[in-house]
Write a structure and sequence with these properties.
Elements: H1 11-30, H2 38-45, H3 49-56, H4 59-70, H5 82-97, H6 100-111, H7 117-138, H8 146-163, H9 170-190
Helix pairs in contact: 1-2, 1-4, 2-3, 4-6, 5-7, 5-9, 7-8, 8-9
């Protein structure tokens, strides 16, 4: 079941969502993940379990949604040039997603059965990269698209963290970034 869209961003709905997300955060600090249940979270949040089931459908989707909100990143650092901006962002991204909470979030998102959580993760990542790209373009730099960076840097990073024996090395991630930059520059030179 997908998280319902179109709910007003403010008002009671936002307060209820924040209360439920806060209850999840608090309970995860106090209990093992396997001990959490919808009734336990509902009690802590001061809502009925049906409120949670109506909005999220199941516990896995709620945990994924709360994790995505918890790990929403700060704005990307501006280092003054595209290469350094992307390298700094990918270093921070690698640190975040390769951390224990980052791995848990990715597992929850994958397990949430196509709920809107994966879309939120993609949108957050795309928005972060677009900020970096827009700054670079304003400085007159050539940039790959956010989609190219997602396909060639973010996707292999996530895949290796989830399914390989180890996360990619920082040197390897930097190679991916440099390859995207070189291809973007080569494409401009051909035109």
């Amino acid at each position: 079941m997908a998280i319902k869209e179109g709910i007003r961003p403010g008002g009671r709905s936002a307060r209820v969502q924040e209360s439920i997300h806060g209850a999840v955060r608090d309970l995860l600090r106090e209990h093992e993940r396997g001990d959490l249940s919808v009734p336990l979270i509902a009690t802590r949040a001061g809502v009925t379990p049906s409120t949670i089931y109506r909005r999220w459908g199941d516990l896995t989707t709620l945990l994924a949604d709360a994790a995505v909100e918890r790990l929403r990143p700060d704005p990307p650092i501006d280092c003054g040039n595209l290469r350094d901006d992307l390298r700094t962002w990918t270093e921070m991204y690698l640190d975040d997603v390769d951390s224990a909470p980052g791995r848990e979030m990715m597992r929850d998102v994958v397990a949430s059965n196509g709920a809107n959580c994966s879309g939120k993760c993609m949108a957050i990542t795309r928005d972060q990269l677009q900020i970096i790209i827009d700054r670079a373009v304003a400085r007159g730099e050539t940039s790959p698209s956010a989609e190219d960076l997602i396909d060639r840097v973010v996707a292999p990073t996530v895949y290796r963290i989830l399914y390989a024996e180890a996360a990619p090395s920082l040197a390897r991630v930097h190679q991916w970034v440099d390859g995207c930059l070189a291809d973007a520059n080569a494409q401009v030179e051909r035109v």
